[in-house]
Description:
By secondary structure, the chain is an alpha/beta fold. Helix content is 20%, strand content 17%. A hairpin with a 2-residue loop joins strand 8 (217-218) and strand 9.
Amino acid sequence: MKTPLFLLPVSAFSLVPFSLTEAQKPNVIVILADDLGYGDVSAQGSTTIKTPNLDRLANEGIRFTKGYATSATSTPSRYGLMTGMYPWKNDKAKILAGNAPLIIKEDQYTLPKMMQEAGYVTAAIGKWHLGMGDGNVDWNKTVKPGAKEIGFDYSNLIAATNDRVPTVYIENGRVVGLDPADPLDVDYNKNFDGEPTALTNPEMLKMHWSHGHNQSINNGIPRIGFQKGGKSAMWVDEDMADYFTGIAKDFMTNHKDKPFFMYFGLHQPHVPRVPHGRFVGTSGMGPRGDAILEADWSVGELMAHLDKLGLLENTLVFFSSDNGPVLDDGYKDQAVELLAQHKPAGPLRGGKYSLYEAGTRVPFFVYWKGQIKPAVSDAMVCQLDIMASVASLIKKKLPVDLDSQNTLKAFLGKSKKGRKELVMEANGRLAYRTTDWAFIPPYKGVVRTRTGNELGNLPEGGLFNLKSDLSQTTNIAKQHVKKYKQMESHFLEITKGYFKREIK
Ligand code: NG6
Ligand code: CA
C-alpha cells in the first residue's frame, strides 16, 4: 500500500514532491479533450456553459491562462505530447487517416516508455490518432506496431477520430467484438462493391454532412473512409463516453496499488457530436454543447473514482485539449445556429487549424489534491513539456535530448515562469510566440477554411502584442519592424531546416 501523502509528517510535506520515495510515486493522468476551446469551460470565464467537473480541476488546481498545445490539429499535437519533440520535425505528423501507419518510431523515446522505465503501469484509452500498424493493416489480426510498441502496457482506443473509419474499438491491438465470420476491411481510396455511402444512400442518415464526411455510414452517421464487414464490432457513438469512462475506471481499479500513468483521450466535442441521450438537450446549444457536458461528466466520473479508490492525494492530473474549437467541422449539427452568445475561443482569435492564438491556446489545468494550491497562473506552459516535467517529478533522467522543457515548478504552481518561447504548427504552417508577443511568418492562401475558422494566413507576415491586444485585432508588423525582425530571427533559428515558406 502506498502511504497517502497527507499522512506524511509536515516536514516531509514541505519537501514534497521533490522527495518522493519509490513507494510514493504519484500516479499521473493526462486527459486530453478533442477540439475543446479556450472559452468552452465555465472556469475560463464563460457564462454560457456550465462545466462543473472541469471547473473543479481549474479552480482547485492551477488554471493556466497561457496553456498551449503544440499544434492546431490532433495528430501533431498528440505527437508532441507523447514524444516531447516538436511535431513539425516529423513530416508524417499531419492529420492521419484511420489506416495510417504509426508515426512514432519504435525505437523513439516516449513519455509512456519513460514511465514504464520508472516502474509505472501505463495505459492509453480513448482517441489515439497517431497511426497504427505498418500501413497495410489486416484489422482481423493483431494490429501492430501501435500503442504497445511505444510504451503502453494497456490500450483501448479508436484508431483515429470519431469521424474516420474503422469505427471500432481496438483493445491491445485487437478489434473488440469482431466476428471472424464477418471480417473488417478498410480503404481510404475506394468503396467496397455494394456498400452504402452517404451519397448513394442518404435515407440511411440520422446526421447529415456539410463538407467531407460522405463515405461509409455507421450508426446512421456518414464518415471519412470506406469500410466493410465487422458489423458486430461497430461502435455506437452514443455509448462511447460510457465505454471509455468505464475502461478507464477499470484500469485505475486494477492498478490502484502500483503507480500508473494513464492517457485518456476524450472524443468530445470533435465531430460527429453524438452524446448519450441523457445529455441531449442539456446545454441548450445543440450537440456541440451537449457533447462538452458529456465530456465534463466523464472527467467528473474519473475524479470521483480516484477519490473512491483513495488515490486523489497521490495523483497528478493534467487536463487540456489537443487544439482549439471549431463549429462546422463537416456535419450539419447546428453548432453555428445554436451558439447564441457562447464564445468557444473566449477572447482569442481563430480556432482549430489557425495560427492565431485560439488554434493552440487551450484550457490547461493541473490538479493534485493536497499538493497544488489553487491558483491562476500566467506562466506559458505547453503539453510538449509534460514529458520533461514529469521526468523531473519522478527523478527520471532523460536519456535523449528533447524539445520538452522542464517546467515542473510552473505546473505545480511553485514558479510564475514557464517556457520563454514556443513554435506552434497548423496544417504544416508554423508560428512563433514569446511570453507577450506572437509572430506569424508570411503565408499566402485562404483566409478561412470551410469551417469558417480564420487560418492566420498573412501574406505580409504578422506581429501581435498579446499583452495589450490579446484578441489579435491589430497586426503591428509594419509599425514595429525591429521587433518583427527580432522575432523572425529567433523563429528562423529554432526552425532551421524545417521552415518551408512555400507551404500554403
Ligand atoms: C479534417 C476533417 C475534420 C476533422 C479533422 C481532424 C473534413 C472536411 N474535415 O480533414 O472533420 O476530422 O480533419 O480533426 O473531412 S482533428 O481534431 O483530429 O485534427
Ligand atoms: Ca482535435
